Automatic annotation (TrEMBL):
It comes from the Archaea. This is ORC1-type DNA replication protein. GO terms for biological process: cell division; DNA replication. The lineage of its organism: Archaea, Thermoproteota, Thermoprotei, Sulfolobales, Sulfolobaceae. ATP binds at residues 67-71, 207, 219. It comes from Metallosphaera sedula. Involved in regulation of DNA replication. GO terms for molecular function: ATP binding; ATP hydrolysis activity. Residues 55-208 form the AAA+ ATPase domain. Keywords: ATP-binding, Cell cycle, Cell division, DNA replication, Nucleotide-binding.
Length: 396
């Protein structure tokens, strides 16, 4: 057995493919960010007020996923801090650190105080934060990435509190940098929070294929051994990611996974075939993740569609609802109204999991016909593995 492990290990240790795979991982912050010069300049010119010890405006940054929002923000802040060294900043991903309690605790901890994991009220934490801020006599920049996730879960009260801190603290100041890829997010905020958070706004446009190519080239030189990745392979990865709204993360993932597949198959050059396999693998992972995290009734509607499609090539919304109600009842669960089920079908359509087409059935009026837009095997796998009740139902 240990021979097998040794063999697998040696293929990675003496990789013919990667010089340093880490340069392709999402958390690596590159030293250069090509094609984000304008955004770096804009953000730096707002934050540069720190030089005078003044509070920079709050900033709201938005743009689609993988457009470099996080990378640019971290890049500008860490470079400014090296040069100025007169401010603090804390980076908080609000999807991971997703309670007002943990956010306040993170801010307090970066300023050097300890906070118990739970047990205090947020009002008490707020008081402590004001106290440590006052003592620090510095400007503090709070970066809230994926800020929409926090507000969806807990409302915008914590944002309101944070934008008001400067009224309670006198010797220090805070500024907030909010980042989101949900363009509509800011419209849903309390008007006071909206105007305060959006003192300055920055929009990150998607990358085009040539820009992605540059980004990939720079990373490929660091990550791969010479001769493993050709220019045409980089072009191909860039073109695929550009079709998908110019997402640099996706382009980098594609190149990394293609490299991993090449390594696994013990080849010594990444070819088009490996890129295609990587594309399929990444797409499967994405679909799996999206389905596994759907709410229960959306999953149930999807399960009904899968079940219905074992007998028919397409289904009407009425047929789906009947199936859904039967399955819910047989599982001892409540069911949602036909109108809500119809909304769920629209949501699944928007996510690209199913495809729904309106058909006119003469005097019977209009209905929608639904087919799956992704591989049914992966849908079923995600449903059955993410909820035991579905596994029991399907096997029973
Ligand atoms: N101009 C660039 N040059 C080099 N790498 C980049 C550039 N822009 C983005 N990247 C890389 O692409 C990946 C995604 O970027 P980043 O996390 O900054 O995107 P984002 O806009 O914050 O996306 P999300 O909204 O999904 O968090 C990271 O690995 C980042 O290093």
């Amino acid at each position: 057995m240990s021979d097998i492990i040794d063999e697998v290990l040696s293929s990675v240790k003496n990789s013919a493919i990667f010089k340093n795979r880490e340069y392709l991982l999402p958390d690596y912050i590159p030293e250069e960010l090509p094609h984000r010069e304008n955004e770096i300049k804009k953000l730096a010119s707002i934050l540069v007020q720190l030089y005078r010890g003044e509070r920079p405006s709050n900033i709201f940054i938005y743009g689609l996923t993988g457009t470099g929002k996080t990378a640019v923000t971290k890049y500008v802040l860490s470079n400014l801090q090296r040069k100025l060294n007169n401010f603090e900043y804390v980076y908080i991903n609000a999807r991971q650190t997703d309670t007002p309690y943990r956010i306040l605790a993170d801010i307090i901890e970066i300023l050097g105080d300890k906070v118990p994991f739970t047990g205090l009220s947020t009002a008490e934490l707020y008081r402590r934060m004001v106290k440590v801020l006052e003592r620090s006599e510095r400007v503090m920049i709070i970066v809230l990435d994926e800020i929409d996730a926090l507000v969806k879960k807990h409302g915008d009260d914590i944002l309101y509190k944070l934008t008001r801190v400067n009224y309670d603290v006198h010797k220090s100041k805070i500024s907030i940098v909010g980042i989101t890829n949900d363009v509509k997010f800011i419209d849903g905020l309390d008007p006071r929070v909206r105007s305060s958070l959006g003192e300055e706004e920055l929009v990150f446009p998607p990358y085009n294929a040539e820009q992605l190519e540059d980004i990939l080239k720079k990373r490929a030189v660091l990550a791969f051994r010479e001769g493993v990745v050709s220019e045409s392979i980089i072009k191909l990865c860039a073109a695929i990611a550009a079709r998908d709204h110019g997402d640099a993360r996706r382009a980098l993932d594609l190149l990394r996974v293609a490299g991993e597949i090449t390594e696994r198959e013990r080849k010594n050059q990444v070819g088009e075939e490996e890129v295609e396999k990587a594309r399929v693998e990444i797409e499967r992972d994405r679909v799996y993740e999206v389905i596994a995290t759907l709410p229960f009734h959306s999953k149930l509607v999807l399960l009904s569609i899968i079940k219905g499609l074992t007998k028919n090539t397409r289904l009407t919304t009425g047929e789906i609802y009947d199936l859904y109600r039967n399955i819910a009842t047989s599982m001892g669960s409540e069911f949602v109204t036909q109108r809500r089920a119809s909304d769920i079908i629209n949501e699944l359509d928007m996510m690209g999991i199913i495809s729904a087409r309106v058909v006119n059935r003469g005097r019977y009026g209009k209905t929608k016909e639904v087919v799956l837009a992704v591989d049914s095997g992966i849908v079923l796998k995600a449903l059955l593995e993410s909820d035991e009740r579905f596994a029991d139902f399907w096997s029973g």
